[in-house]
Amino acid sequence: MTSKTTGQPSRSREKLIAKLLFACALLSIVTTVLIVGILAQEAWSFFSDVPIQRFITESEWTPLFEPQHWGIRSLVYGTLTVTIGAILFAVPLGLGSAVYLSEYAGHRTRSIVKPLLEILAGIPTIVYGYFALVIITPALKAFIPNLGVYNALSASIAVGIMITPMISSLSEDALLAVPKTLREGSYALGSTKLETTFHIVIPYAISGIVSSVVLAISRALGETMIVSIAAGATPRLSFNPLESVQTMTAYIVQVSMGDTPYGSVEYRSIFAVGIALFMFTLIMNLAAMFIKEKFKVSAKL
Known about the structure:
Elements: H1 2-47, H2 52-57, H3 73-104, H4 107-119, H5 125-141, H6 152-176, H7 180-188, H8 193-204, H9 206-221, H10 225-230, H11 248-255, H12 265-300
Helix pairs in contact: 1-12, 3-6, 3-9, 5-6, 6-9, 7-8, 9-12, 11-12
């Protein structure tokens, strides 16, 4: 009798908790749908004034000046320039740190180095922007005298430093999840630690490593303050990292400062840029998920 009495409240609490968890999951979905809906509605209003052909095909982006041009390709080029540069900087550094911490560092060294590395993730991005402007750019000018004050290279390095802890931490977790029996079997066959790391451990953990890189790319694509401060605000149809560029997020910040009249076609252009960035990121994530599954299959084989 007592067990039945105590069991009913317990089941009621479990049902209540299940409903609360479902509500949390539903809230996140509703929030996403509302964000996409607002972007789509405002973007539709923008494209009613500016033909989508101009938005895609024009080579210049000057919506705030006369004559107005609406070619988003200039912003896409700037975004890709900074993102690719950041990934080229962060992946070797982050993956190398992860391999060292998981395979070579002792427990005491790991307990010191890893928290210091993860401190980088807690630094405000605006600090990274000014760091790029006053430290990285003058250092680069020592090797590239013609480098301008605002350039994509400095912004790429700063964004790369910012996303390095993300790649390092997630990749380290993936490497530590590799069963020790695989390492011991490799050592038993006469392999060195280096051979075991690169031929056994990394291929087995490649799915987690790819996931960390994908998250880092998404973070770099959406970065705002660093590129707004260090990369400048000059849309260019060029992949030259030594020039000033403007990314999609930097343009949204520029228009959102308050100088553009609310409701004007120039103001609504930020929603068109936002929906383009959303679609760009969505396609990239879908492709990354496909690649991740391919790596999973390869690792199992």
